[in-house]
Design a protein that fits this description.
The protein has 250 residues and is of the alpha+beta class. It contains four helices and 16 strands.
Length: 250
């Protein structure tokens, strides 16, 4: 698949939609595009520099989460190839196909509209630098090998040899704005689907955590290399100590 661009979505439940938007606009120092779709359910976070790669959506039911858009030149052809690799069709309309991975993670194939410039990292008053630049796919242990094989085959991106423990990282081209990490969960409930969360890379995790808490987030758990957070809409995400200038091919 020739992926030309990627977009990460926050899928906010209705009751948290406005709070989620307000929080992430401040976290990412972006402005909100005009709202679109049914009842203004969709919008784009527009950066001061570079092309947009972050969007928000209001979902009608459930707790929400995150999903991924892959921007391609031929949506129908790539959708058929995804299905041959094990994806399941969910919905189709002009210029858009909604699918689920073998593990149940929702993603979309959309038409590429010329996006090409990756937004740069941001420097904050506390001195830390950060970038919202990674989608982490959280996979139940029994589905991990199949899910990893699916995403490698679908994207055509190689797997880095530097990963450890429960993580595997794919290496997208430098012109792709989002890094792509798969995490094998320690355990999962019967029937639990693959899901995802968004990560920020950061130099200065403690200062960045304090900034997020001041904006309304909740700090949940501190690990050696990352801080788990919950945003005001109830979605979890992580602030990692990965340098925002680093690329998996380095």
């Amino acid at each position: 698949m020739a992926i030309r661009w990627t977009t990460a979505f926050w899928d906010f439940p209705a009751e948290g939609f406005e709070a989620g938007i307000a929080f992430w606009l401040k976290v990412t120092d972006t402005t909100l595009s005009p709202r679109r779709g049914p009842d203004g359910a969709f919008a784009t976070l527009v950066p001061a520099e570079g092309d947009p790669c972050l969007r928000v959506q209001r979902v009608r039911e459930g707790k929400g989460g995150n999903h991924l858009d892959l921007h391609v030149d031929d949506v129908e052809a790539e959708a058929e190839r995804a299905r041959e690799l094990g994806a399941t069709l969910v919905a189709r309309e002009e210029g858009l196909v909604v699918l689920r991975s073998p593990g149940g993670f929702a993603f979309c194939l959309v038409e590429h509209e010329g996006e090409a410039e990756v937004p740069p990292p941001l420097t904050w008053p506390g001195g830390q630098r950060s970038r919202t630049d990674q989608l982490c796919i959280d996979v139940p242990p029994q589905a991990f090998d199949h899910e990893l094989m699916f995403w490698q085959s679908l994207t055509g991106w190689p797997q880095t040899g530097k990963d450890w423990r429960e993580f595997r990282r794919l290496v997208p081209p430098r012109e792709i704005p989002l890094h792509f990490l798969l995490q094998r969960l320690d355990s999962a409930e019967q029937g639990q689907s693959t899901a995802a969360h968004i990560d920020l890379s950061c130099v200065g995790v403690e200062a960045e955590t304090e900034r997020h808490v001041a904006l309304g987030a909740e700090a949940l758990r501190r690990h050696q290399y990352w801080q788990v957070m919950r945003d005001p809409a109830g979605l979890t995400y992580c602030i990692t100590d990965k340098n925002p200038d680093w690329h998996p091919s380095d």
